[in-house]
What does this fold into?
Amino acid sequence: MKVYILMWSVIALLLGGLFCSEVGSSENAPEQDELAKIDSGFFVSRNDVYGLQDQPFKEKLLLFLTEYGILTKSSKGLIYYYISEDAIAQIEDLEFRGRVSVFVAEPEQRKVHIVKHGDSLWDIATKYGISVAELAHLNNMTSADPIYPGQRLRVAPEGD
It folds into this structure.
């Protein structure tokens, strides 16, 4: 009985080798550029997306991530979307593309905004999906306080 099992195992291995291409052969190996594309993307926490206060942006972002992203789960059970740079670059709506690019940036980059000439508290708050009052509170100021180019404004709470 054991001899028959061993014999059929050897036959299956031989037949499998005839019908399967060689593992690691150069004709099936992904191009280096394709591998680089896989590496160029972002992981976005689903909690960060659900925490957005700008409801229209949140809904549009969820649709985008659902359609073009890959849902993943960390070893700690946290849910993330993986989104490639290529997918972001193909967004036709320039304003939405800009907001997505800012949102998927590294978490530390999402916490601070450097004021540019022409920025207003309303523009900045809208860009990050928070209210003007919330932005002012995060920066120990009032909504009537002036801002200036080069000023660093917090756009997310410390623990975020």
The first strand starts at residue 41 and ends at 45. The beta strands are 41-45, 70-73, 79-84, 112-114, 152-154.
